[in-house]
Amino acid sequence: MELLLPLFLNGVVNGAHYALLAMGFGMIFATTGVVHFAYGPVYAVAAYLTWWSVTVLSLPFLVAMGVGIVGCAVVGMASYVLLYRWFLRNDSPPFIILVVSLGLLMLITNLIGVAFGTNAKTVNDVTYGFYFIGSAVVTGVQLWQVLALVVVGLGLAAFMKWTAYGSYIRAMQDNMLMAKIVGINTERVSLVVFGIGSGISGIAASLILVKEGALPHMGFLAVFYAFLAAVVGGLGSLPGAVAGGLILGLVESLGVWRVSSDWQTTIAFGVLFIVLIWRPTGLWKGY
Amino acid sequence: MFTKAIKGLTCAVVGTILAAGTPATAEDTIKIGGIFSMSGTAPYYGQVMSQGAQLAIDEINAEGGVDGRKLELVIEDHKSGNTQAAVTGMNRLINVVGVKAVLSSFSGPTAAIAPISQDRGIFTLNGGGVSPKMIGVSDHMFHNRSMALDLALASVAYAVESGHKRIAQIAIKSEFGDSAIAAAIEAAERAGVEIVASEQFANDATNIDAQIAKIRAARPDVVLNWATTPQAGIAVKRLRDIQVNVPVQSMEWTSEDFAIAGDHSENIFVVTDYFSASEENEWGKHFHDAYVARHGDDPDFYAANYYEAIYVIAELISRAHDAKGKDFASADLTEQLWADNSFKSVYGGTMKFRDNGVVIKRVALLEVKDGKTEFVRFIEAAAD
Fold first, then answer.
1. Is there a common fold for B29-146+279-353 and B148-272+365-379?
2. A237, A287 in Cβ contact below 8 A?
């Protein structure tokens, strides 16, 4: 039983990370229809910009984090304006856009390596404490990860409910054609969605930079976890993204309570397949 | 007249293009393949290994080559352990490039290309992988680095010597990690100490918190860290983050691990192959200085192994020239190695290949202190 609490807390922390990623990824997909696999390297861009701002510009971490978030939002918006928009305007089949996003994933990942080098980047000057909770230890950065989910989740919920753009986004997620007919500038809303979705990933990336450092390929698996959590929760659903992320984190962590950690990924994905068989459209309906 | 001129010009141009496009013939250049990790999660290794090998090749060529024939290194990328990429690379090196020898790296890729080495009779020298599964598959495969069992024996021996009784270990889930974990369990059984936790994680895992939590719950008094760069540094950082402050014995500790672990890079010992540029080791010092002059960094043992490997191959080529002439086959290098299995080592003195194709090397104990790894002593614990 001594192990259960630390595994549970780790599951919550990692689940919060996955949930943040799922929120942004799911929002982009549900609104624009783009399976944005380049979301992964865009997330990595935030980590690298944060690192660059801390180490080269000597900015305080929170300011640097802001640079990273804005920077990756800009890269996300640029990927829509320069690439996806053209294919969407020309009614390209979804699989073509999927291939484009995979190509962009490879392109940005390689560009990060070229621009920053392939070695690990770290910001060791950022200090954080540790706290005992029963038999478990959690670090300050882990608490920030959970706090980030709470703040971003509530902020995004408020944005979706009480702003004009929130209602446009909901309209587009509900029926893209009808949204166009009633006069919503869907391209502008898509641009905003790419910005917000990418910016959310930037928050998660900056915290991972503190926790483990940054590597060019760091977004590769992250985007698949984001995709999976978003699908399990229900694509486009905010509470679904939170639930999907937390379930993924908890299953992954608690799954190795009594068995070897060799089985971690197998257990996590096996359970999630069962969830999807039970609820093929995810746990929640979209916005 | 005009037509003749055009034809002549065309012939000249085509001839020039063909001449420029034709690769150097086998008479001119001997090609050596290198299957390294040039991209993926661990490009560090490919960088230092290729730099070590290329430095040796440049030195040999600057001296006129091997019996007047230049050497050329042709690199294939196994993308940080992708066995399929390694097999593709090996086939390309043999069928397209026409290499006479191959340098391999990482356990998985090396084990994957071993059957091809055997079938095609390609002399293959591994300076990075440590898995015992690479041994005995190909008569033409050799290893100039210590194997997992050698390292595990030494690491467990040092843990026991230091009074530790509860050993935990962590490794990447890979051919390499599996071998190290299994070898340490075997070594611990021999030494009569308890392995209280053996945790592994995926090479591209997004986090290793569950594994670290299980190690903490097992209350070890030493942790054997079989992870490689950069995960070795991440493992230590996460251990220290949750207050697992017992000694960590790593199999390697690179500059990248220092960067990741930061201030946590203390109370760490490294049990590994060790390259030292001491004054007594003239060749080693020459290599160190040349490497630093070219790349600005001190060479690690991976760079040293592949530098040394090129000189081993050059020596074998020279012997094969004498025995078989210039049209020697790759398998002739194997024959020449067994004709005399002792070679000068950049580590100092000579090294000797055992019957299983693995070189006998001493394993060193290093201590990570004040941002540096300091040599403590050699541990004599080589497996039979």
1. yes
2. yes
